[in-house]
Amino acid sequence: MKYPVRNFLKCCINSFILKKPTPLLLSFEITQKCNAKCSFCGYWRLKNPSLGLPLEKIKNILDNGYDLGCVLLGVTGGEPLLRKDLPQVFEYAKKTGFSTLLLTNGYLLPKRIHEFRGFLDAINVSVDFPDYRHDKIRGISNLLDRTTKGIRLAREYGVSTNINCVMTAGHSLKDIRQLLFMAKELDSTVSFEPVFQTPNLGGSILGTMSKEDADVVKINDWNFIKHVAEMLLFYKKHGYGKIILNTEAFLNLIREKADFICYPFSLQLGIAHDGDVTSMCVTGLPKGYLGNALTQDLKEIWYSKRAQALREKYKRCRLAKPYGCYLFCVAEPSLPFTDSKVFYEYAKRAI
User: Fold this and answer.
1) For residue 208, what are the β-bridge partners?
2) So what's the pLDDT on residue 350?
3) Using omega within 30 degrees of 0 as the cis cutoff, is the peptide bond preceding 97 cis?
4) 350 pairs with which residues across the strands?
5) Nearest to 120 by CA among 146, 157, 165, 84
6) pLDDT at residue 351, rounded to an integer
7) Contact yes or no for 71/100 (Cβ under 8 A)
8) Quick one: pLDDT at residue 206?
9) CA distances (Å), 16 to each of 248, 259, 302, 349, in order?
10) Stated pTM of the model
């Protein structure tokens, strides 16, 4: 996926040369409502999930985000496709200058993909297993079939797609290979990340989960992740380099289960369903509330003393190794700050 060159260069120069962090990604939780019941997620457990902000307020936040320097709008949830006005969100984002990305479970893709033609650059779809187990872990019947159909339609419309797999104790090396081959057959990229539990009691990736669910998905033997990483590194060098989205640095990181310097509030700006601005850390450190995009200017929030203090605090976080905290959307964007090869790999993809 190509990014707007002006803002992309601005982000790179500010973040890596001038050491003045500028967000590449504006991650917008556009709704809390979801039609799935993923065992490791907390959205569907919310008693009163919010549909999200009205369209006009979303447009104001997008204007603010682009002015701050954001390049990519990533719309997430919940399940964003539950919002009827989602095409208008992406249409406005494209007119503003963003590259656009939809994160979805894929169930509604076949029904709605045609509505986004010309407004949507890329889709990230969750696919955890290559068979019936995917429907089971996500809590929706016929999900895998509908998702693969939606991916095929998206590719016909020229929309880039990525399949993201959250690896759990229920996976095998065969499962990972099959997902890799599935991505190639669908003309898609694929990424992998290990599931983890937060240090908070009863915690999961996004919310609380039962002990029964936790025991099923929790990875107790990290040797499995090590073998997955080694296999993917092999495939990246033997014909799948453009298909596997994970960088070599990320795969080496999870293979060694090593700590890394975390930058969850340097290249990514998170907007919650109610306009709250937060970091994208989901472990034991403070969630990083910094203000609200409805009442404050994003530049004021982003460059505040509190924001800088949190960035410094996150750099000292050492929760990755003990808790397996390698969330793809946080760990991968953190690596360019300490590994120049990752930066060049990102740059080649972007321009």
Assistant:
1) 203
2) 61
3) no
4) none
5) 157
6) 59
7) no
8) 40
9) 20, 21, 17, 17
10) 0.91
